[in-house]
Amino acid sequence: MTDSSTLIPTLKKYFGFDSFRNQQEEIINTVLEQKDCLVIMPTGGGKSICFQLPALMFSGITLVISPLIALMKDQVDGLRANGIEADYFNSSQAGEEQQEILEKVVTSKLKLLYVAPESLGALENILKEAYISCVAIDEAHCISSWGHDFRPSYQQLSFLKRSLPNTPVIALTATADKATRQDIIDQLQIPNAKQFITSFDRKNIGLEVRPANDRVNQIIDFIAQRPNQSGIIYCLSRKSTEQLKDRLQSKGIDAHAYHAGLNFEERTKVQEDFIFDKTQVVCATVAFGMGIDKSNVRWVIHYNMPKNLEGYYQEIGRAGRDGTKAKALLFHSYADVLQLRRFIDGTTNEQLQVAKLDRMKQFSEATSCRRKILLSYFGELLAKNCGNCDICKNPPQFFNGTVIAQKALSVITRLRQSESMGVIIDVLRGAKNATTLDKHYDQLPSYGIGNDIAWKDWQHYIIQLIDQGYCEIAFHKHNALQLTHFSREVLFNGQQVQMTKPIERNVQIEEQKEKTKKSKKKDTLFERLRLLRLKISLEENIPAYLIFSDATLKEIEAERPMSEAEFKQISGVGQRKMEVYGDEFIAEINAFMAEKKKKTKKSDTAKVTYEMYKKGMSIEAIAEARDLKAPTVFSHLSKLYSEGKEIDMYQFVTKEEVISVKNAKKELNSPEGLKPYFDHFNEELEYSKIRLALTILDRENR
């Protein structure tokens, strides 16, 4: 086992970290002992270091199997930024470029080589133990036929162990249940691989689910509260991504669409602009994100409900990879459930997919800690509520909804269990539309019995009845709502039904806006550092987060290092980054501190004037002692008086002059600035006296 005294300095020098996370050190030691291993670690949990650091200690090269060209390029750029020799090999490169890379392998000039599984055939001559010290297989769930990203080329990787029997293989993925884990081990022919399964809990991601009512405006508000933050919005269809992108752009939001309908060049541009912080928001289908290692995605929104919890977990994991606070917002609607069921109908594994969709639906409609539900799905139990989901922060208020339930079930009965939710709500509310009138539903005794409840609220209540088993959706009968054996208990035997009221979002939005205002005020240095990072990234043509992550910038903001030694103590600052970027960032911190000091002096100058005034000094004496002009001293006194300081303003302006200014204010209809008053008084009343009079009037009004 390698000594920590060797590993930690290497970790700090190249990656800028002072300690390992989770099970990283044990995994690294297992690889260095040339043993196979399977690593299940959440997105942002530090999987890459588990093979990148051992690569630095092996004599040969570490071959990394990676699914997407963009992901390879991103990882290679990050390694080079840390001073590590790395490259990638794929079909997008010319033959001459590929030959140069192979030459680097043979001459031991590379420590890591990234390659797509489809390109392995072209590496036949270097797949020898003389060159390859380790094989890392990223996104290993692609190997498994049980996995949710089935990829045939991954299933042919078993030849690697046959070709390199003594070379350790490390397979890594963010999500894999028991069946998938076993499938990966079998397919790769690594039966003795040690399994490392770290916590799936991403504590830094706040989870929230909202009803999909007016979701576009909710999204616009959400983004407005997070200026300069990168985010992804996942939609079910190409059409939705385009429509949403257009709506956001119409509100001045820098948004672009990404889907399979765009050509390769268009998709590449959207992805690269997002990676380089040139685009703030991407509206995308689920194809987007797997190839992105962007650490400063601050939020992910699901415009539609995902089809299963594996997909949801993978997609929200693209936010907050740097470990700082991030947000996952899911919009849930009855229409999404119906659409996803239509997608599933007739598929070969329909039963399995329906079960997974049901778990997704239960998560969306939960009234208990969402993180507990999510983690339990992956076999991890959380002892306490997380405190960082919408349910924990705003626990739902239950009430006796028996009468509401009876009204809904009564209408379902009257309609002979043959109509969908929309028609049932229309009958409850007494709607006069074509369906209710043509079918004579307006003649039913139950017609209009729920007209005191809004349409969207009825939807909220009926979904709860479905969740609690008091009625069910007959998907094979045009989504008709039907009764269950529990329905009779409510309708005829007085069984009570507990419900939750719909959540009003407006108050929460206003509270969030207030929080955003406050955060804007205290993030000044962070914003300056962020802009410097962006400038350097554009000059060097690498993504901004590869220079420093948001987490590193926040630590710099908090610690404010003023020397190279202090700067190097920041987590995420390695030797090369200190040498390349240290001077510029330290200079920016110094400039910020100097400006702050200057502003502080400026704000303190009025306090000095006040201390002199309290000692009984005249305006002329204060002005002379401080080398100021008299009007400046008067402006200090006005400011201090408006802040509540005890100053006898009538020493400097008469009551008659104050009354004159008051009358002028009415006559001039509260003009902006002092000039209109000065003109009104034919330049006979001094500016300083006008200012003092207005200050007195303002304080009296308050």
From TrEMBL:
<feature type="domain" description="Helicase C-terminal">
    <location>
        <begin position="215"/>
        <end position="363"/>
    </location>
</feature>
<dbReference type="InterPro" id="IPR006293">
    <property type="entry name" value="DNA_helicase_ATP-dep_RecQ_bac"/>
</dbReference>
<dbReference type="Pfam" id="PF14493">
    <property type="entry name" value="HTH_40"/>
</dbReference>
<keyword id="KW-0479">Metal-binding</keyword>
<dbReference type="Pfam" id="PF00270">
    <property type="entry name" value="DEAD"/>
</dbReference>
<feature type="domain" description="Helicase ATP-binding">
    <location>
        <begin position="28"/>
        <end position="194"/>
    </location>
</feature>
<dbReference type="InterPro" id="IPR014001">
    <property type="entry name" value="Helicase_ATP-bd"/>
</dbReference>
<dbReference type="InterPro" id="IPR029491">
    <property type="entry name" value="Helicase_HTH"/>
</dbReference>
<dbReference type="Pfam" id="PF09382">
    <property type="entry name" value="RQC"/>
</dbReference>
<dbReference type="Pfam" id="PF00271">
    <property type="entry name" value="Helicase_C"/>
</dbReference>
<feature type="domain" description="HRDC">
    <location>
        <begin position="519"/>
        <end position="599"/>
    </location>
</feature>
<dbReference type="GO" id="GO:0004386">
    <property type="term" value="F:helicase activity"/>
</dbReference>
<dbReference type="InterPro" id="IPR011545">
    <property type="entry name" value="DEAD/DEAH_box_helicase_dom"/>
</dbReference>
<dbReference type="InterPro" id="IPR002121">
    <property type="entry name" value="HRDC_dom"/>
</dbReference>
<dbReference type="Pfam" id="PF00570">
    <property type="entry name" value="HRDC"/>
</dbReference>
<keyword id="KW-0547">Nucleotide-binding</keyword>
<dbReference type="InterPro" id="IPR001650">
    <property type="entry name" value="Helicase_C-like"/>
</dbReference>
<dbReference type="InterPro" id="IPR004589">
    <property type="entry name" value="DNA_helicase_ATP-dep_RecQ"/>
</dbReference>
<dbReference type="InterPro" id="IPR027417">
    <property type="entry name" value="P-loop_NTPase"/>
</dbReference>
<keyword id="KW-0413">Isomerase</keyword>
<dbReference type="InterPro" id="IPR018982">
    <property type="entry name" value="RQC_domain"/>
</dbReference>
<protein>
    <recommendedName>
        <fullName>DNA helicase RecQ</fullName>
        <ecNumber>5.6.2.4</ecNumber>
    </recommendedName>
</protein>
<keyword id="KW-0347">Helicase</keyword>
<dbReference type="InterPro" id="IPR044876">
    <property type="entry name" value="HRDC_dom_sf"/>
</dbReference>
<keyword id="KW-0067">ATP-binding</keyword>
<comment type="similarity">
    <text>Belongs to the helicase family. RecQ subfamily.</text>
</comment>
<keyword id="KW-0234">DNA repair</keyword>
<keyword id="KW-0378">Hydrolase</keyword>
<keyword id="KW-0238">DNA-binding</keyword>
<keyword id="KW-0862">Zinc</keyword>
<dbReference type="InterPro" id="IPR032284">
    <property type="entry name" value="RecQ_Zn-bd"/>
</dbReference>
<keyword id="KW-0227">DNA damage</keyword>
<dbReference type="InterPro" id="IPR010997">
    <property type="entry name" value="HRDC-like_sf"/>
</dbReference>
<dbReference type="InterPro" id="IPR036390">
    <property type="entry name" value="WH_DNA-bd_sf"/>
</dbReference>
<dbReference type="InterPro" id="IPR036388">
    <property type="entry name" value="WH-like_DNA-bd_sf"/>
</dbReference>
<keyword id="KW-0233">DNA recombination</keyword>
<dbReference type="Pfam" id="PF16124">
    <property type="entry name" value="RecQ_Zn_bind"/>
</dbReference>
